[in-house]
């Protein structure tokens, strides 16, 4: 039984080799595969167009979330790098950087009282993270002051 199976496999392999040696065999297979792929694609578009749009919106939302998380990670890295700088330099960078964008925002959009109230009531997903980042950003100054007091022996 094993020899019979081996003979059949060898015959099939030889037959496939003969077919592949015929002129244009590979091209015909590729054309058939391309045609089938196009049919499947067209069927997919025609039958499922109603759920493609929400999937794309979900993908865009996930991408926006990834961008936001990457920006938060970059900000944390900048804060961490601030710990490694001398205290005066870190204090100068942390103090100078946030003021400029805020001034530009204030000049660009004067807010009405209604807009301010709506923003105060709105829950922003990254707000807790921003509060934590602001608290961490203030720590280099606090730690530097504590180190200075310890080194000079002062008490508060």
Question: How would you characterize this protein structure?
Answer:
The structure is a single chain. This protein has 156 residues and is mainly alpha-helical. Among the domains are: 34 residues; 36 residues, no CATH class. Helices cover 87% and strands 0% of the residues. The chain is built from 6 helices and no strands. The radius of gyration is 33 Å and the shape is elongated. It starts with a helix and ends with a helix.
Helix and strand content put the structural class at mainly alpha
Mean pLDDT: 71
Uncertain spans: none
The major pleated sheet works out as: none
- Sum up the overall morphology in one term: elongated
Please count the helical segments. 6
Features:
mainly alpha; 156 residues; 6 helices
Brief summary of the model shown:
It is built from six helices and no strands. It is mostly helical.
Write the layout of secondary structure elements.
Layout: H1 2-21, H2 25-84, H3 87-96, H4 99-108, H5 113-121, H6 127-152
Helix pairs in contact: 2-6, 3-6
Biased composition (Low complexity): 84-109
Region (Disordered): 82-156
């Amino acid at each position: 039984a094993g020899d019979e199976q081996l003979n059949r496999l060898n015959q099939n392999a030889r037959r496939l080799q003969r077919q592949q040696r015929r002129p244009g065999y590979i091209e015909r297979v590729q054309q058939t595969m391309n045609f089938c792929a196009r049919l499947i694609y067209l069927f997919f578009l025609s039958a499922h167009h109603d759920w493609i749009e929400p999937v794309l919106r979900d993908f865009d939302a996930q991408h926006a979330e990834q961008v936001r998380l990457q920006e938060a990670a970059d900000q944390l890295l900048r804060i961490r790098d601030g710990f490694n700088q001398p205290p005066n330099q870190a204090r100068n960078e942390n103090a100078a950087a946030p003021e400029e964008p805020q001034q530009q925002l204030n000049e660009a959009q004067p807010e009405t009282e209604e807009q301010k109230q709506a923003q105060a009531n709105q829950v922003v997903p990254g707000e807790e993270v921003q509060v934590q980042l602001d608290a961490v950003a203030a720590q280099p100054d606090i730690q530097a002051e504590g180190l200075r007091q310890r080194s000079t022996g002062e008490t508060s």
